[in-house]
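Data card: per-record layout.
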Amino acid sequence: MIKPETISERIELGLAKRYRAEKRFRLYGIVAIGSAVTFLLVMLVAIGVRGAGAFKQTHIELTVVLDEAHVKDNNWQGIIKSSLRKAFPDVKARRERRELNGLVSSGAGFLLQDMVKVSPNLVGQTKTLWLPSSDDVDMVLKGSIDRSKSEGSRRVSNLELKWIDGLVAENKLRLQFNKRFFTGGDSREPEMAGILGALMGSFYSLSVCFLLSFPIGIMAAIYLEEFAPKNRWTDLIEVNINNLAAVPSIVFGLLGMAVFLNMFMLPRSAPLVGGMVLALMTLPTIIIAARAALRAVPPSIREAAFGIGASRVQTVLHHVLPLAMPGMLTGTIIGMAQALGETAPLLMIGMVAFIVDIPTSVLDSATALPVQIYLWADAPERAFSERTAAAIIVLLIFLVTMNLSATILRRTFERRW
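The structure for this 417-residue chain is written out next.
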């Protein structure tokens, strides 16, 4: 027979062992959360440090003469070249002139053209303007080009460095806020590239996606949860909906290419097609979230409505649906946030094209912000690297905003039973 004190000792030993196991489990959880937060912070800091430079762009001050002859010939870059030669009269050799012309962006002429289109009375006048410099000059001022390397090992010559230092000393070359990054379309020149075209493409695509997926998803969820009979067919539909939620997104892109482009001959690389493909991809998520929200409404609500003589349709539309709508909207916002970050299905329908113009409708050729990031990440120019990181920052801000709004919406309107 076991002595009482021995039983007490065994209980104490067992409790001590259990407490140690609980402490280890808590420690494992803290380490896991700490590791995840550390990796996330490292990623955000790395992206932030690399992308911060894209929000500033080097500009050079030039006194340009909007000569009528050059304007008639559309020789806008010739106006800039003439201004550079007047600013550096000692430059005579052809090679040196070519290097001198490389101080200013090759897209600066288009800015002069747009300015004259808005104000034609500027022709013949002399204006002092701040024009964007080339990406190499921009990289020099941001310290991304190592001056200590030999001249043959860097993209900027010693003579160009001398000109840059002279302009900086005269306060004619400086970093300014890069508003063109937010107001311009894509460009082959990194200093002229912007994300507005991609943002508008994403906006139109998500608008089409929402207008299609939200009403269809809500109606499908209401039918399956409230009206559909429970039989093999509805069970098969439920299984397929759950399976579609886990299908890789590129499969929906292949479906969109085969059906919308090849069968219905819709315009390629249009936000209309992109939104339809994203709607197909988002529908399962919305249906699953909407059904969960409907199931969360207590049966007493339905029974009370039936008790006062309401029909099934009136019960669902007037009582159940308003109470389930916050959960439905939360699932919809999460699904839309997922669609915002998708790239693969949009690549399959041609939204990877190089688009300079800002789209103005769902039928215009466009790209999307994730695709724009993909294109810039593959560009060889070093200045596109910081543009890529800056575009990722903008995309993360939108994603965090959408998920935060879903959380706020759920906590504001959710009812606990």
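Known properties of this structure: The chain has a mean pLDDT of 88. The chain has three domains: 4-52, 56-185, 196-413.

See the next section for split statistics.
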